[in-house]
Each structure stands twice: as C-alpha cells, then as structure tokens.
Known about the structure:
Four copies of one chain form a homotetramer. The first copy, chain A, is α+β, with helices and mostly antiparallel strands.
Amino acid sequence: xxxxxxxxxxxxxxxxxxxxxxxxxxxxxxxxxxxxxxxxxxxxxxxxxxxxxxxxxxxxxxxxxxxxxxxxxxxxxxxxxxxxxxxxxxxxxxxxxxxxxxxxxxxxxxxxxxxxxxxxxxxxxxxxxxxxxxxxxxxxxxxxxxxxxxxxxxxxxxxxxxxxxxxxxxxxxxxxxxxxxxxxxxxxxxxxxxxxxxxxxxxxxxxxxxxxxxxxxxxxxxxxxxxxxxxxxxxxxxxxxxxxxxxxxxxxxxxxxxxxxxxxxxxxxxxxxxxxxxxxxxx
Amino acid sequence: xxxxxxxxxxxxxxxxxxxxxxxxxxxxxxxxxxxxxxxxxxxxxxxxxxxxxxxxxxxxxxxxxxxxxxxxxxxxxxxxxxxxxxxxxxxxxxxxxxxxxxxxxxxxxxxxxxxxxxxxxxxxxxxxxxxxxxxxxxxxxxxxxxxxxxxxxxxxxxxxxxxxxxxxxxxxxxxxxxxxxxxxxxxxxxxxxxxxxxxxxxxxxxxxxxxxxxxxxxxxxxxxxxxxxxxxxxxxxxxxxxxxxxxxxxxxxxxxxxxxxxxxxxxxxxxxxxxxxxxxxxx
Amino acid sequence: xxxxxxxxxxxxxxxxxxxxxxxxxxxxxxxxxxxxxxxxxxxxxxxxxxxxxxxxxxxxxxxxxxxxxxxxxxxxxxxxxxxxxxxxxxxxxxxxxxxxxxxxxxxxxxxxxxxxxxxxxxxxxxxxxxxxxxxxxxxxxxxxxxxxxxxxxxxxxxxxxxxxxxxxxxxxxxxxxxxxxxxxxxxxxxxxxxxxxxxxxxxxxxxxxxxxxxxxxxxxxxxxxxxxxxxxxxxxxxxxxxxxxxxxxxxxxxxxxxxxxxxxxxxxxxxxxxxxxxxxxxx
Amino acid sequence: xxxxxxxxxxxxxxxxxxxxxxxxxxxxxxxxxxxxxxxxxxxxxxxxxxxxxxxxxxxxxxxxxxxxxxxxxxxxxxxxxxxxxxxxxxxxxxxxxxxxxxxxxxxxxxxxxxxxxxxxxxxxxxxxxxxxxxxxxxxxxxxxxxxxxxxxxxxxxxxxxxxxxxxxxxxxxxxxxxxxxxxxxxxxxxxxxxxxxxxxxxxxxxxxxxxxxxxxxxxxxxxxxxxxxxxxxxxxxxxxxxxxxxxxxxxxxxxxxxxxxxxxxxxxxxxxxxxxxxxxxxx
Lengths: 283, 283, 283, 283
C-alpha cells in the first residue's frame, strides 16, 4: 500500500429541523439547517474497516433533533456549541467537532395592519450562520456570519485608474451598478454576551457601509465593510468577506438610434468577479 | 414524410433587463425577466428551411431593450402589452404574441432609520408576473400573478376525515404546519385602470386568507384564497392557483424518551403534494 | 362568494423510488421519479372542507412503493398504467388519473474491460419519460418521451435569410454551433407491443436526425426530428418537441490582434431561444 | 480604523469557453469553465481605493479567450499553467495565481453504428478538473481531479459494528446501497509527462475500487480508493476525497402486508453523511 491517512473528518450535513415555539397565541419559527463534522482518531475505520469508534451520522442527526426538543435553539451560537459539546461526549474518539447552523428567516404576514401571530412569509434567500468549534479540553471557538445577502446600489460606485494591457477592453467608469451576494463570516475572540445583538450590529454595519461607501472598487468597499463590522462589535476580532461581482452590463443601444445614460442594463451570471479578503483587529 | 405540422411557436426566453429610473436623488430599480413567444404562419421555416418570415429571437431581445429605454416599464402589464403589440408589427406572419414578464423586487436598505435612495436588498424569491396575449385584430388579454410566494402557518391547519384504504398510514391531524410556495395567475376581464393597485389587492387577499382561513385541507384553503382574490379585484374574472404542499414531518422522539407536542419538524422536499384549481367569477 | 370552482386536480409529485432487481449475481437498478395527479369530483373538499373523498397524497405515495414491490416497474409505460388503474380503484371519486414517470439511467462501470454486475455510474441528466392517462371507462392513453437530452453539433448548421428590421443586429451565418436540450413527448395511438423497442427507435431517430440534418434553423431541424420520430415508430401518432437554443457566441478577438475562424465560443444561458412544435401523423 | 488587511485574493470565476478543434472532417469540442484567482500586493486597492495595480477581472477573461485561440487547451493541466504564468506577467503585483479548469465532456453521437464526426451528446454532470498554482519564482504546482462522478453499487457494502448510544436508532446492515458523488483532487509531485494518461489511470482506479472493494463503511472504501489512486499514478503524491453519502432508505412495506428483501428504496437528498480524507504517499 503506497499511502498513509493524512487527515480525515466525517459528519452529517443538511440536517433540517424546524422548531415551533409557542408563547401563548404567538408562535415563533426557528428554521435551521445543521451541519456537524468530527475530527479525531478514526484511522481503524479507514484502514481496517473497523467501525467500533464510528458514531453513525444517523445518530448525529437524532442528537440534533433531541437537543432541539430539550433546549432553546436560540441564540444560534449557543445551540451550536451545545450540539458540539454533546457530540464530544457521545463520540470519545472525536477530538474536535464543528457545528455549523444556517437559519432561514420567516417574517410575520401583515393582516390588516397587524403582524400575524402564526402565519409567516419566507424571508428570502439570506441565511444567518453560526458556527461552533468544540475541541476536547479547549474552549469552543465561535463564529457568526451571513450568506446570500444580495444587495445592489445604483450610485456612488466607480471603477477607474486600473492598469491596461494588451487584453484590456473594459472602459473606465465613475458610475456603475454594484451588485453582490455578501458572504461574511466573523470570529468572536470571546463568545458575545448577547449574540443576537452582536449579529444585528455587524449585519447592519455591513449593509450601511455597502449602501453609503464612496466605492472605487469592490475591494475598496469590501475592506470598508470589514472595518465597519469590527467597529460594530467589540467581540469580533476577524471577519472574512467574499463578494462575487454580479456584473450589470450597460446595453449598447446605438444601433437602434438610442442613447443609454446608465439606464438599461443586462445582469449576467457568468463569468463573475470574485473578491475576497480578511480584515483582522489590530494588535 | 409521415407527418404534418400541427402547431408551433417560438420566441426568446429569459431576457434579463434592469432599468434604473432616477427621480432626482431617488432611484428605482426595475428588474425584469421577459419571455416572448410568437405563434403564426411559420410552416415554411419548419418544412422548407425558408427563414424569410422568421424574425430572429435575437431581434426580439433587442426590441425589449429598446422599448425599455423608450417607455415606462411599469405598470408591468402595460409594458408587456406594448412589447406584444410591437412584435405583431415587426413580425407580419405572427398572429399571436404572448409576452410574460417576471419582476424581481428590491427593497431599500434602511440606514439609520431612513430608507436609502440608491441602495437595495433583494426582495427574495417571490416574483410578480404580468402576461399580455396580443392577437392580431383582437384586444389583448391581460393576466397577472405571483410566483414563489413562500408562506407557512403554524396554527389552524388540519387534515382529517379522509378515506382510508389498504395503503393509508397517514394519521389524522387537527394541528399541522401548512407550508407552500404560492403560484397564482389571474385573468383580467378588462385591463384594470390601476394594475398596481389591482395586483396589490389580490396579493394581500391571498396572504391574509392563507394566514387566517380555518383550514381543513390545502384544497379548502386554496379555494378560499381564490374566492378572496376575486373579491379583492372586480377586474379579475378567473384565478388559477397551484399550491405544492411542503410537508413538515413531526419527528418521533419516543426512542429518546421525549415527547414531541407539535414542536420539532423535519421539512422535506420530496415527495410533495400538489394541489391545483381554478376559481371563476360567477355568471 | 363571487366564484365557482372551474376545475381542479391534486396528487403527489416527486415520489422517488429505486428498485433493485437481482438476476443471480447480476443486478439492475430502476431509478424512478413518479408524479401522480387525479381529477374528479372533489368539489366538497374545496368548498366545504369535507375530506371524505380525498384519498391522501401520502396514500398515493405508499401505493407506488407497494406496487413497485409487487410488479415489474418496466416497461415504464406499463407500470405507469398499472399505477393509474389502481388509483382509479382506490379513489372512487377520481374520474381521471395521470401518472408520469421519469427514469434516471445508470450504466455499468467497466472494470478491466468487463461491465460490472452490481456497480454503476450515473447516466447523466437525460431522463426517459412515460406517461399514462387512465380515465374511468376509457382506454388509457400512453405517452413516452425524453427530457434533458443535451446535444451539440459543430457543423452543418446555418441561420440566414431571415428578415431584418430596425432592431436586427444578428449576422447571418452558414456555420454555427447548434446546441440544445431536447425535450420530446410522443403519444402512442395504441400502446406499443414492445415499449422499450419503440422508445429506443424514436430516441435514436431524434439523435441521428439532429446529428445529420442539413439545418437551416432550429425550426427546420426540429421538424425533421419530428418526422423521423414518426417514421421510427408506427405506434406514435404525434410528437411534441421543445428545443431551447443554447446559444454559443463567437468571441470577437480582433482587439487582441487575433482572428476567430469559428473556433472560440462563449456558451450562454440567458437569454435563450425557445422553439416548439408538434408534428402529427397524416390522415 | 480598528482593522488591518490580513489576506486577500481576487479574480474571475466561471469563465466559459468552448473551443472547436477541426482535424479534417473530424471535430473535437473542448468545453471549459475557468476560474482564475490572484494573490499579491493589493493593499492600496482595499485601503486607499487606488486601482493602479488591479488588473481588471474582465482583462483576465479576455486573456483566457485569447490564449485559448493561440494555444492548445489540452492537456488541461498545461493550459492551466500557461494561463497562470501569463497572468503573473500581466499583473506585476500578483505573487501567486491559481487557475482551475473544469472540463465538461461531450461524447460522439452514434449514427448507424458509427461515431459521428461533428455531433455530440453531453457526457453528464461529471467534470474533469485541472488546477495550476503559479507562484512568482517557484515551479508551478499541479493538481488534477474529478467532480460529480456519481456512482452507485447494490452489493458488497455493509455498515455494522458501530457504537450505539442513547440516540442510535440505525440498524446494522451487511447489505445496503452505497451511492455517492465522488469529488477527488490529487496533487502531482512533479508534472506528469502524460497528464491525460495519468488522469485516466487515477479515474479508472477510483471507479474500479468503488465497484469491487468489500466495503465496511464509506470511510473504508474511501481510503481504499485513495490507495488505489496513488498506486495508479507514480506522479500523484497526495489525494483528497470527499464522498457525500447519498442515503437510500429501505422502505417499510409491512403495513401493506409485504416484505422488502432489499429491493425497494427511497433515495434522499437531505440530510446526507459527508466523509472526507486525504491519503498521502509514504515517505
């Protein structure tokens, strides 16, 4: 046999669970997708086909259902840590467990000017993310984030002053559409006392900066969003942002005798620019 | 040759166009996907390979771009009719043109308690639909609709009293989650004077009825939604509803020593019930 | 109440079932997705919330599982008819049942030049379709088809001689890439004695005609494919084809000092032409 | 400003390019999706909005088109390295460039027993991957891989002997369906002299091992596949495998008076096990 096992992990992905919490007549829906992943001493399973240490991923799924029944699933970060800690207990050979939860939001339906107690509309594609990394004998690491937060601005976004080579045909512009699907993930140095407040502050900082920053490029605004996020939560010590550039191409209408003063655009899906960076707290 | 051409149509689908309308500092985004489809006398193209009558679908796309520059794209229903009428002019062999537009909504980003003039969040997956059928020498038919309006309710939904046969294992329930993605399409007897108002009234009637109806089944609530829609717009004379039942299965936690008083559910994607009906105005 | 129930149907969609048939050491995988849909007298459910006639869609799912255990699931057309007939028995108020089955193919893995008995690779996205319409007191109607049969040709495809108007910018071409995802559905006048042979003959006729037809347009080749299909199966009396035109745009490399003799293309997804027609057997 | 730029990268993703190579009457289609990503000294763009060093991602796209016209796009690994080297030249501030290419296969259509010269069917969802990492002043690193190679086996797959805790309900089995979508990525210690041969040997080793391994678990077979891959190519020094477990649940038919001797299964998409490991060459 020419090889050795260098590293490995396993777990269950896309565990769907909806918990309905009833406070009198008022219900709240917690709609979660949970991924769990274990690392540890599972060499015998790979090399020898010995499953004595392999807690089934089906058991992991059951554990998530049961814990969701027994405990609050919010704040998300705490439920993630709870699942991780419990898995370390159930699976003695696991040395590290990562639990990532994506939460789909439901907003109350407005009926005659009043938000309904038990009826909801989907909050769109945006997901709130919480991630807990539980290592045996060490404090859990906590991350939070957003995924698929799709935003667009129609003013104050430029891209000019870039180098031109033999393959450059792009025109400089001081006014373009800037559209992206924000994925952001930030790490808490210590677990925040109020995870929902911390999440809300960072999310709002990302949105407000996207909306108002005088943008010279995606990079420029991405970095400003990272700085704003760290400014919004003292507990966050690092944020990673991934911004796909959903290009909107200005249509050339000259062939039809028409001008196009930044008015008619074609949004495209392929190809797309992809800009990523990590901003870390100083010191 | 054993066959004859029985019927045919052709057109361009998924024409993406974003129009930015600027009223002073305040911008509005119209994000449309347009499908156009022509029927008419195109036998020679099929049978003889003679393209003399075949206006290219690329031309249809260009026409949509140009008309979007020259005209208001809202109300959606009027822009759809405009495109259809113009295509009848440009394509003399077309006898009927159907133009369907899906509008993706963008909502303004809230920055410090004020809705921003030029920055937007995606409004989710829900699409507003407008459809104009322009026939040569006849008034255009107008339809409106919604697609992917995803809603969920946690109370007041039952399913019981159904027949049981040898293959029935489903339990009766007086309290279940009812989740669906509403597709609705209604036909206007005459074009509404205020299409936006008519659309808004029907959409709100659908939502409010979904939220508040004492539901004995998906069929029962679907029908009530159809009645409410016709009640909300005098111009609508027929509505077709398609409600996939996004089942949420109650998890059996007994093996873990836990009860589950309608609290923990697993949402599933496959299989799904699909309930469809058309409600027509009396007389 | 302003409305009346004009028509309605309900059923279960996306019932997934995999049947493993073992003939000695050699296994065969039948991987099916079944949709069933009932029409009939279900007014009381809609209007009165009375479910006495509403066979649950969950029961329909169970029925499919049980019948798959008890009967051959191939030929596909016969299994579809069997499910439909049985549903008419189980659901006395149903007047018509439509059962549509999509079959996903698995091909045997080649191990050292020999096709393996029990290991398979996915056959791609193409699906074989069978559809049975069972009406109470009438013979079942049978359809067959293919979905997502993706094909591409690099020679012998032209588009020229089309009309030009003020919005036409497309260049004429005698040599373009022609790429499409074939959806075809044909109706059998009477159920074929050998449904697999009939399906194979029609599918091969579609492929061979796509490959070899001197194409003046998508319409031209679509029609030839329809004629060839009717020629390949005496039992088929009508075929409907839907061919999205997956445009491949020739890249303009002149800015880089390069020509592009029909060599470098960009495939696009939006927008796309959509060409549809029905070819019917003469007489 | 509380933060500093910790790391960053940018580039263009999903650059689609189809190259038609003509050798006499026989054409070959190279259908590629290219992602390029640059790392380097781009701090000024992020922090100061200074784009002087930011080669536009649009230029990267143009470069790929032009190089595809001027050079062979196969073997894939060499074209990836060519694009990377050229980007290092065009972008002086880039210190490292990663170029990843996914190739979609097209197989020739069989017409009357002969493979056609210019007509093709899609080869399904499987993609061949090549990845070149070009660092300034260092040799390029080369990786190859497959993505979405979907396979299924109906015999010789077990899962038993696993630990049971309070949350374990899974039954032991010596005979289950094992279905997965193989993603594999292997690193070449030195660039192989014949990349196509190396790729083919590794892919076949993965398939044959999947088909024939006496599987005690996904982990067990994954590891065997990794060993077989390293055995099949001397140039490969490490392989990473990611195997989602596409569970096929045995249907309980007892309620209908039927047994189910491993015959009727429901394939599910959510949740799924995910097993990942890296196997490295010894020494």
